[in-house]
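Figure 2 data, in text form.
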Amino acid sequence: MWQSYYSPQSVGEALKLLARHKSDARLIAGGTDLIVEIERGVRAPAIVIDISRIPGLDAIYQDEQDNIHLGPLVTHNQVAGSELCVNRAFPLAKACWEIGAPQIRNRGTVAGNLVTASPANDTITPLWALGAAVTLRSTRGERTLSFEDFFLGVRKTALQPDEMIIDIFFPALKGDQVGTFLKLGLRRAQAISVVNVAVVLNLLVDSVTGARITLGSVAPTIVRAVNAERFLAGKVLRPDVIIHAGELAAQTIAPISDVRGSAEYRRYMAATLTRHALESLANGTENETMPTRPVMLWGKTDGHFPTGRTRSFVYSRDSDEPIVTTINGVEHTIAGASHKTLLRLLRENTNLIGTKEGCAEGECGACTVLLDGIAVMSCMVPAPRAHGAEIVTIEGLGQGDQLHPVQQAFVEEGAVQCGYCTPGFVMSGAALLDERQFPTPDEVKQAITGNLCRCTGYYKILRALEKAASQ
């Protein structure tokens, strides 16, 4: 997959590696985009630089100028679970909540979403509406770019080969501002946007004094609906005003037809989503589809992966440096796996075959494991990331001959048919029960949005998880 894999322990060390290797290198944090690109042959970086162990890069904070800052390791679930972001950057928090599934949101970073620069990436649209900018750093110095200057086209940014995003920042919503985010996907979870929209309004009583409307997945980059913004200025959000603003927003875009939707459908839905967003802001109902306590699958952790546990290290195909990791409470020293994913290390090098490979690109959840107590999809995790970490697989849930309560409930409820997906469901359920002692039925459903079953229709799975929770 790569020739050399570096794990630096400081930003300075990472920047020196980028300066040395330039276009031969790629940074990796969550890996939810890069691993898929490597598996599909879209990218073949000789050098991978894993920055996920560098301390202090996963902070969310507000400065004295009322700007909110996101570090380059801030994950989507950390944003969705941030009281600051929910209260002062709601469009971003809602977008992060609707990305992928809990296991993906636990690894995928907002910065990685920006660097990938797909016009369908959900965090770009609300950040653009919020007026965000990025600070880039290299050994040559720092520079700050607005989103208009950073995004240059489809999957193209102004980021130079020796630079990394060191900060994402934007003004927090003020007392006279409201905002929201809506997306259209082909299913309720794990869906790429067919169209998405973010709206931020300044209101004086019931009149709009300013508006920012951004649309995603409808053009090579995110589009601002400037004519709709101008039209709304000074208007009251009456039904006729909202309808016309939606029509103006749809006139702004130049969508394509693809497997997810035709250009005509995207135009229609751009108008519809803009209208729905404005209606929810007018009615004050924008929060209704966002859970007050989202299920994260963080288990007993705070959702932050430990940093600073290991020294800086490098693996290469020509090196016999072993990966030393703890799996199910037992320390393993594993050689010859540094070019693999964690999933394949578990199956091929430790013979722990309970963790299944269904899709190998983060879609099915059959490979779910706990990485330092947090649920992740192991097909999206580079094997060297396991060095110095603690992994729990399906084989490690029970205590001796005693099954974990979720495993026992699956047996009693007959929540298995072919059984291939079962380990992933059980791992998600176990993480849920570590996080919530008495989850509601809706929270149980949230917990398994990243797990697909082709056989059972989910009813017995849900009953088993609810039974385990009740016991």
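Caption note: The chain has a mean pLDDT of 96.
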